[in-house]
Amino acid sequence: GLSTQPIWRKLWDDVMKTRPPNSESITCWRKKFLETFFSNVLHGVLDVSSDWRLNDRHFSPLLHSSPHVSQLTLCNMLQGAVELTAEHNHKVLENLAGSLRILKFQHLLSCDQSVRRSLVLLLHRLIHHGSVSQVSMYSWPVPDTVLLVLILTMSAGFWRSGNALSYHSSPCGLCREEDKGQSQESAQEGAERGCNAEREGSSGEKRTPKEADAAMNSGARSPPLRNPACEETSSEVPCGHTSIRESSSPGSSSEQLSCHPIRRKTRRRLKPAVGRKRRCLRRSRGRYADPEDLYDFVFAVAREDNSGLLDKTSTTEGENTENWTSSSPGCPCAGHGGCKKRGPAGILSLKAAHRFRSVSTLELFSVPLTGETCRTLSNLLSSWVSLENLILSYNGLNANISCILSGLRALSRHPECRFRVLRLSDMFSHMPCMELVRCILSALPQLRTLSVSFDLKNQLEGSRPEANPSCSKAEIPESCLEVLEIRFPREPLHTAFLLPVLKASKSLQQLSLDSATLPCPQELGLLLEVLREHTLNLKKLSFHDVNLAEHQKEVLLLLQDPGLQEITFSFCRLFESSTAEFLSEIINTVKRNSVLKSLKLPGNRLGNQRLVALADIFSEDSSSSLCQLDVSSNCIKPDGLLEFTKKLEGHMQQRGGQLPFTHLRLFQNWLDQDADTAQEALRRLKAMCSVVNDAWDSSQAFADYISVM
């Protein structure tokens, strides 16, 4: 029953000899130590021989700590992947396959094929036969296309058979066992089908193509995954029939994912046809790479010139391609480009790939995506049924966002789709924020969380497309949206554009509006009316960097709202031109509100005097249930914090020693100006509630502020 946290904290100091980042938020020092210990040993940051407790030839640091590692970061030249796939670390890799949940890549560099081969084995074991549910890539300014597409493809659950690292020849025993079991099942079912065929032939009965296809499918490890766009275009002809068609041109002989059923195991009846096609394909594209090359399936199609290829494909195949790459009729994105290229060029060839387990979260942060890479990612997304969260940040998408949405739209039509969270952020916006939001919700009505964030408008204002007329007219289907976050690039907030989104999002519980400008004084009032009328389930409302100095009436109305449990006014200049009466009205309004649980006021120039006044929210006559208060970045000094603490203690005594107040946030205040007074105030505060603050150098921050004025 005794906690070992202090022991692990001391071990950190003894072994790591560094101060852990964000130590205030660490809930389990044992987990934090063992994960960091594993990573530092793996990357050579920690010398095991330097500590007598670790310098033992019978002790394996990686083996000992691997069962406790839930997230791992691989950097630079992927030396960690090479080490983990080495023979002597076989048991370490087995442990990671059971414990690892998040795999991160950071600051990657180009590497040779032997390193990539190790990476393939690592991804295959940790994703396809492991427990990794999230793959993240960070800070890759000039991504190696081979490496990027490889990680994306394997994260989506694909691994091509027929090369030197296929599961038929790899050291992965799990694949061989599954293949052996599948072969035995297929042989047994093949014999049964033969007997059934003889009986049917003798009785003169015939089966329909659908019944025959169902019988052939009965032994598959999982049902094939088809792109719904393909099914809508040609519902009578199964996509599998197009995948075995021969062609004289290299481009037309490679299928798109949108017209190809993804199987975990190839159907036995189609093996001869697939084999003939692969031999034909290898002869026709010998100029690209060795047919056994691991990355043959990544680049062979992507490098084809797409000119004239569409004319060589059949009508059905062309319709499927166009249906997949173009925007749906009536979609606001239709006029903004996107996947304009037709035909197989730039589309990943997954002809001989097998489908394995895939991750549920994909995150790409500061990884530029070209048009070709976007088409490959869109192709993968269209059948990535396990994907639940997609986070794309600072990827320079611009018009290619339409291509990504095209793949997600195809995915949303799949009956097994689990996609729920989409977060998009970038430096420049290609189209107005509200138009993009409407386009996304029109394509993905099943979304639960949508976050759209842009720093600036397009560099060349003239190159930015005008608002699409179809956007204002198109109806948004009723959505399942619960969380909506929009960061405007200093764009005006027009309630008329937001209204259709809110009307369609009746389940909305959280709304965040960031960096918007109010075009007229009445705009905020109109927004409040819309919120009261159409978002009855709204629980959290946040404004950040929105000038509310002249909207005191609306602020008070929000604080009176009987449904809101959390309100945030962050850097909204609330008290820039206010009077003492406005602060008193805020306090009295919150005192009467028994629903509000959290009030966040960072960056509003409260100062000492207003902070002390806020303590009256918890007076004896208050019916407030407020338990969280955030007063970060409010020019609060130690003497003001101490006076606030004393006043809070007085209210606590009047209420019999109990307050609903449980959390106080004090980041980036001027508490370093008198360390002793600040420490006394914090000590007394922590006896009443949980306090989160930081060691902030106010003098340096002030100097930085002056330097940029």
From TrEMBL:
Residues 261-278 have a biased composition (Basic residues). Residues 176-278, 310-329 are annotated as: Disordered. Coiled coil: none annotated. Residues 190-213 have a biased composition (Basic and acidic residues). Residues 312-329 have a biased composition (Polar residues). This is Leucine-rich repeat-containing protein 41. The keyword Cell membrane does not apply. It comes from Regulus satrapa (Golden-crowned kinglet). GO terms for cellular component: cytoplasm; nucleus. InterPro entries: Leu_rpt_41 (IPR026137), LRR_dom_sf (IPR032675). Keywords: Leucine-rich repeat, Phosphoprotein, Repeat, Ubl conjugation pathway. Residues 245-258 have a biased composition (Low complexity).
